[in-house]
Specification:
Order of helices and strands of chain B: HHHEEE
Radius of gyration of chain A: 17 Å
Mean pLDDT of chain A: 92
Number of helices of chain B: 3
Number of helices of chain A: 13
Oligomer: heterodimer
Largest interface: A-B, 25 and 29 residues
Mean pLDDT of chain B: 76
Bound molecules: adenosine-5'-triphosphate, magnesium ion
Radius of gyration of chain B: 22 Å
Structural class of chain B: alpha+beta
Number of strands of chain A: 10
Distance between the termini of chain A: 22 Å
Strand order of the largest sheet of chain A: 3-4-2-5-1-6-7-8
Strand content of chain A: 15-25%
Strand order of the largest sheet of chain B: 1-2-3
Largest sheet of chain B: 3 strands, antiparallel
Order of helices and strands of chain A: EHEHHHEEHEHEHHEHHEHHHEE
Structural class of chain A: alpha/beta
Low-confidence stretches of chain B: none
Helix content of chain B: 40-55%
Low-confidence stretches of chain A: 259-271
Distance between the termini of chain B: 60 Å
């Protein structure tokens, strides 16, 4: 049965689009069929991170408005054939996204894919609300920093009250993904500790993605980090997170780059 | 630099960030209304029932309906018994 997953955060620039691309690609690399949807109308970026920017003909709003069929708008990845993209519109108004239209498209995608991953825009307005509306699972992307943690807390509240699942009294599965983590700064007490963020937000940990140049390099060349540098620290961390999403138990480690091959164990507990 | 800020500098500023967040969020959650009361109830009700019978996480529905005069809490759980499935529904 298909799972609809929203990647959300409240705060902007914390790594939602990077994480959508990396988790989507990692799940697809493991043989699952995956579609990633960009909900950031007017500020689309997922196409660029996936290197598909020149192949976008129709987008989410075209499909919502009935101007294109879903099959015409889906862009299949050239490297991983089980990965597809539904791009956001760059020119249209975000009010063109209707709840009814998004619901219809997600229902249709559920029939075709194992995973439907929605890349939420920042904020808590219409785009973010619709990205989470039909989700079964949420990945809350958080940087170990005060304003990001506060916004994540707000988003968790919305996931538990404004999603269809919450309204129907069903469980909304939520996972915390800490990104742009810098172990040296955590050690020096300059950055919130992972345990503190976990304690404050109290949702299970999906993974810790280190701050890394590999992420920038991957987006420069338009390839998710799990494809472009699967053995790099962020590549491995995203691969592990994708396994946990599938329900596999993987020991929680923060891969580091400084000493290749050495994993610094911070948590025994699996998410 | 006074002595306090000297020690804070040595410990790093992260513990201050944690304390400020804890205070702030306790406040904000209260102000926004019991943030996920239904989610909390769901987990706890499930834990109690799971002590005695096997239940599937996804077969539990907890619904809260808030009206002016009365609020209702609806709990609907499918329980696996040896012979088949039983449904437990509570409303109040
Ligand atoms: N682990 C990381 N290491 C280094 N840079 C990172 C990491 N994660 C994300 N970034 C960088 O941070 C920036 C923002 O990332 P991204 O676009 O994924 O965030 P976002 O949450 O989708 O932003 P928005 O809210 O604007 O949609 C990008 O330049 C990205 O390359
Ligand atoms: Mg983004």
């Amino acid at each position: 049965m298909a799972k609809v997953l929203v990647v959300t955060s409240g705060k902007g620039g914390v790594g939602k689009t990077t994480s959508t691309a990396a988790l989507g690609a990692a799940l697809a690399q493991s043989g699952q069929s995956v579609v990633v949807i960009d909900f950031d109308v007017g500020l689309r970026n997922l196409d660029l991170v996936l290197g598909a920017e020149r192949r976008v003909v129709y987008d989410l709003i075209n499909v919502v408005q009935g101007e294109a069929k879903l099959s015409q708008a889906l862009i299949r990845d050239k490297r991983v054939e089980t990965l597809s993209l539904l791009a956001a519109s760059q020119t249209r108004d975000k009010d063109a996204l209707t709840e009814e239209g998004v619901g219809r498209i997600i229902a249709e995608l559920r029939e075709k894919f194992d995973w439907v991953i929605c890349d939420s825009p920042a904020g808590i307005e219409r785009g973010a609300a619709l990205a989470m509306r039909f989700a079964d699972v949420a990945v809350v992307v958080t940087n170990p920093e005060v304003s990001s943690v506060r916004d994540s807390d707000r988003i968790i509240g919305l996931l538990d009250s404004k999603t269809l699942r919450a309204e129907n009294g069903e469980r909304m599965e939520k996972h915390l993904l800490i990104t742009r983590f810098d172990p040296a700064r955590e050690m020096r007490g300059e950055m919130l500790k992972t345990e503190d963020v976990l304690e404050i937000l109290s949702i299970p940990l999906l993974g810790v993605i280190p701050e890394s140049e590999e992420v920038l390099r991957a987006s420069n060349v338009g390839s998710p980090v799990t494809l472009n540098a699967p053995t790099s620290a962020p590549g491995r961390a995203y691969m592990d997170a994708a396994k946990r999403l599938k329900g596999e138990v993987v020991a929680m480690t923060v891969p580091t780059e400084r000493r290749a091959g050495l994993f610094s164990k911070i948590f025994r507990r699996a998410a | 630099m006074n002595l306090l800020s000297f020690f804070q500098r040595r410990r790093g500023s992260a513990p201050i960030a944690r304390d400020r967040l804890q205070m702030l969020l306790a406040h904000e959650r209260a102000a926004l209304g019991q943030r996920d009361l239904v989610a909390v109830l769901r987990e706890e009700i499930l834990a109690v029932i799971a002590k005695h019978v096997r239940v599937d996480q996804d077969k539990v529905r907890v619904k809260m309906d808030r009206r002016n005069a009365i609020s209702t809490l609806e709990v609907d759980i499918e329980i696996e018994t040896g012979t088949g499935q039983t449904r437990l529904a509570l409303a109040g």
